[in-house]
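FAQ: What does the model actually see?

It sees only this:
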Amino acid sequence: MNRMSNHLKNQFEQQVRRVMDAGRAAGLAAAVINQRGEFLYEGYFGYRDQEKKLPVDRDTIFGLASVTKSFTSLSILQLAEAGIVDLDDPVSRYLPSFTGKNQAEPVRLRHLLCHSGGYFPLPRILIDQIAGQVGAVESRDGDFAYLSSIAEEGGRQVAERLDAQTRLIGRPGERFSYCNDGYALLSEIIRIHGDCSSFAEYLEKHILEPLGMMRSSCSFVKPAQDKNASILYSWQDDGSLRADRDYHNEAFALNGGGAMKSTVSDLAKYVGMYLNRGTGFNGAKIASRYSVREMCKPRQYAAPDVYYCYGLEESKIGPFLAHGHGGSLPGVSSNILWSDDGEVGVIILCNTMDVSVGYLAKAALRMYYGEEPEATKPEYPVCHWTKDWIEQISGEYRSGEGDAFALYEKNGVLGMRLNGKELSPVAVSPEKALVRKPFGDTCLQIFSDETRGVWGAQYGSRIFPRCI
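And it is asked to produce this:
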């Protein structure tokens, strides 16, 4: 299957440089592996530390951000295999602090796994915020990733805040909207019902150590002290560059949504485990074939040609389906991707926020198949939205996470302003529009019903409530 020519590799590396230039990225690692764990391609670009000109290599530690959600999902499936949890049970059975009281029916574990609990995005509950409230000091009490006092208080606050929502997206399971709080609750279930004192310890005991991923963890302290860990680079709103090893920056109080850190070498073992249906290269049995299949089943429509599974996304790339996940946090852009049919996996890690690494992961997969790395964008029919419809949907849509966009009529067509930036969406169906971008389009979906009228809109992975 491997049809990577030098010509295609050169084209892929040109794309890497384009993406890095557009995102002002400091350092990036890219790798393609096969089912036996052999590296078919690896490339290291830029620096893990720009100031000192220190290079990136296989063992450089990067943040993973939301790639962590695949680890969380895998852990829940392990508990289900052991008979400790049932995915069809209400979340409240395993986490009494969460009741789902304002929902029409129970919110079940499987709903949280595929972001369909029915909740709008909320402001992040951050680890430093909770640490301050419980009086935790890392230099005295130890790494925050392992402190039960932070997890308990964080879990209580996340659960109570979700329960307090009275304006909901819909019934549990009805619609997809990315929800970090849902994965926060899942990590608490793992902590409480696993055989470990913390979510971080559970991952180490049941996934990382069995696979030999010895440079991977949820720790906040170890990567900050590691000589071969990348500096975290984030461009601020005022144009300044923040560069540090502050893994607390914007970190969730509960670790299941985005706390993992890892390396190309370690992630090759992790992706290889999926390619081998739950068994590591070293023979370690992490999950059954059934559980891996359950993780990879499409559960919710997320975007054109993309479905969300359990902690993974499914899309068609080249001739086959692929599964994986991306992540973004300050100083982190990450993506893993694999195809069972192609017997191939891809890892892209970057130490700069908001870099289009998902685009590069797909490009690397196409390169492996012998196709041009740069995909031809699909052509959609242009749909005319009437002035009356545009006026009906006009207004502000604001997420609890801080983002906001406005829709309005502009010279007879739809106009859009996201966080103060003008965009030009193109209507492609009666309720969908696309914002065309150099490294992938973003879908805008309007939602309305008989009782609420136009009540929200999905942009990217989140449903934003319409401001009343």
